[in-house]
Amino acid sequence: xxxxxxxxxxxxxxxxxxxxxxxxxxxxxxxxxxxxxxxxxxxxxxxxxxxxxxxxxxxxxxxxxxxxxxxxxxxxxxxxxxxxxxxxxxxxxxxxxxxxxxxxxxxxxxxxxxx
Length: 115
Prior knowledge:
By secondary structure, this protein is mostly helical.
């Protein structure tokens, strides 16, 4: 059994947290695609570019999240336990999701005003 397969605790809290981040990322990706489809249906030519940029950002964030989980898991299962990594990955999630939400609201607002 590899180090990443061995759970740190019986409640699997780090694993549940990692899965929650994955669900969040996939939900945002789905919302981006549906939103781009809706905006494209309304006639906006920039919708595919917006969806592609969002999907790239979500892919990067999911990769960061997976790597952070692996680092935390290795730190918790090491003998002796090591210091946990910082929260920079979590901060990147907060900034990116806030920015994506704001950009989406601005893009829809611009579209509605110019329509």
